[in-house]
Amino acid sequence: MSIYDTLVVLDFDRTLFDTAAFHQDYLLPHIGRQFDLSTAQFPPHFTPPSEHGFFDAFQHIRTLRPEVSETTIARWAATLPPADFLLPGTATFLTHLAAQHIPHLILTVGSPQFQRFKLQLSALTATLPAHIIEDISKVQVVRAAYQNDGLFHWLMNGEEELRAKQIVLVDDRLSHLEGLPMYAQGFWLKMAAKPAERARPIPPGVQPIDSLLELLQVVE
Ligand SMILES: [Mg+2]
Predict the structure, then answer these.
(1) What is the distance between the alpha carbons of residues 115 and 12, in angstroms, rounded to a whole number?
(2) Residues with CB under 5 A from ligand 1 (ion)
(3) Whether 118 contacts 109, CB under 8 Å
(4) What CA–CA distance (Å, rounded) separates 91 from 93?
(5) Residue 71: burial class (beta carbons within 10 Å; 0-12, 13-18, 19+)
(6) Per-residue pLDDT tens digits for 114-145
(7) 12, 106 Cβ separation under 8 angstroms
């Protein structure tokens, strides 16, 4: 089994994906038409109930329209057209990683159904290995992947295990990078980070970057 130098672990929302534009220009108009809901009922800048909470649009429809079944929502979501809401630099970055055979995956927090829906909107992210977590932290996932042999062991797709000497974690949320072990490198992508994130202190060892393209020098 080959051992890679670097495994790149990418956040999805506001790191690869323009979540704010997606809500405003795609999700809300489609939901409004289908379920007769106004943007006032469905604020684009929805605040999750807790710091580790997340917005699940499908669950939110069910809260506002209890008579609509999960199956109805899933069937409707499957009819929505593909769309490109990738942030500037994402396509170039992912294409470059693939061309250089640098292993990379998505690690995202949220509800599996809604996260999978967003991932599948664009072919570039639909085809990447993606891990969706709900109730454990990213730091816990990174720690669990580190084994006694000093390598990261990561199940990429089902059974295929990848081994890497170092891990690079990219996120727009500083809380996801807090407490990272020494053997992991954290990068805070500022580009689409929420204002509250920009006001927080940057955790020790975490490097701020303005664009994903800055990482290309790090991982090569
Ligand atoms: Mg994010």
Answers:
(1) 9
(2) 11, 13-14, 172
(3) no
(4) 5
(5) exposed
(6) 999 999 999 999 999 999 999 899 999 999 99
(7) yes
Task: Flag whether pLDDT at 46 surpasses 60.
Answer: no
For the segment 169-184, what is each residue's pLDDT rounded down to a tens digit? 999 999 999 999 888 9
| Cα(51) to centroid(ligand 1), Å | 12
Q: 114 alpha carbon to ligand 1 midpoint, in Å? A: 14
What pTM value is reported for the model? Answer: 0.92
Q: How much distance in Å is there from the Cα of 176 to the middle of ligand 1?
A: 9
Domain boundaries, the chain: 3-18+86-219, 19-79
Residues whose CB falls within 8 Å of the CB of residue 115, separated by 6 or more in sequence, listed in order: 12, 108, 130, 132
Q: Name residues whose C-beta falls within 8 Å of residue 63's C-beta, 6 or more positions apart in sequence.
A: none
R_g over Cα of the chain: 18
Domain 3-18+86-219 in this protein, CATH class: alpha beta
User: Strand ranges (DSSP E) for 11-138?
Assistant: 104-109, 130-133
Dist. CA 220 → ligand 1 center (Å): 24
